[in-house]
Specification:
alpha/beta; 352 residues
Amino acid sequence: MMQSCRQRLLLLCLTAAVAMNMLGNTAVAAKEVAPGVKNLTNMALSVIPHNVNSSVVTKLVIERNLITLNELDRQALVSYPLLEELHLDGNWVTAVPANYCSVVPHLRVLSLSRNNISRLDPEAFFGLDDLTELDLSHNQLTSLPSQLLRGMNGLKKLNLQENPWNCSCPLLSSIVEVTAANISIGAPGVTCAFPEAKAGKDLYETTAACYPSLTFTADPQTPATPVNTQQSRTTSAMLKTTLSSSQDQSNDWTPVFGNTWKFTACVVALALTTSMLIVCAIKGPSWYKLFHNYRHRRLNQQEDDEDNFASTVFSEIERYHNHQTFTFEHQNGQTEEEEDGYFEDPYIRREE
């Protein structure tokens, strides 16, 4: 029994050693066959390795690994200053932050196919002036930010196949910009997924239906007529005019909710109304009692004020009346004294 286990363990160790040797030989062979190429495919790497030897690497292939494009990966890319091609297909990338690839400014080809990218920062590829090919196929993108192409004047090919595109007209403004810049998006094969009424339709046809004033070709890489500066200016002006008429242009990341917000608003209004009715039913009797007591106190206070006012007026009138009576008596007394007084005229006595 023990001998059987030892044999199995030895067999596993030999198998692992042979596999590691084969991977090492493959990497060495890649370096020898194509100088400047570093191939790290299927190495179960979670972080991009640094260029320890400071060798000249122009093409870095790290496909089918566990790369997420975090800050450690960005620091590792700094050690590849002459990198021209970066292939990160089949990794665990979910988003590309702003200015992430600016540390490799000479990049011409960037492949992020078969990841799980659902969001791109408007300045994700800012600083890549030499980029000519960008592969974003087989991801979870529903729209592109409107400023994604800023600075990428040399971009010729943008692969967008196999993404769940939301073909609502406000979200297609970025596709109009791509078309105006004469960039191929990998058509045919780019279809809409949302909304349901447009599911399965071609992205170009849907964009042309949303912006009938603009002219679209089946393949922007080979237009029917040459594109000159005047035509580019005219297309840009028409694009700005058309996009300014859209009410939802200000937010490229906002999905179209349909009538969901209306339903939510109705539910909130119904909940608030029901709560107010319940509160009124519970607190109504006590509020009425408080109001009734308040009115009763006010009426009593008014009656007391009226009684006090009446008593005050009456006392004032009585005082005034007494004062007049006193004056009248005094005057009467004075009159009586004048009438009772006797004045003897000596002249009349002499005549008598």
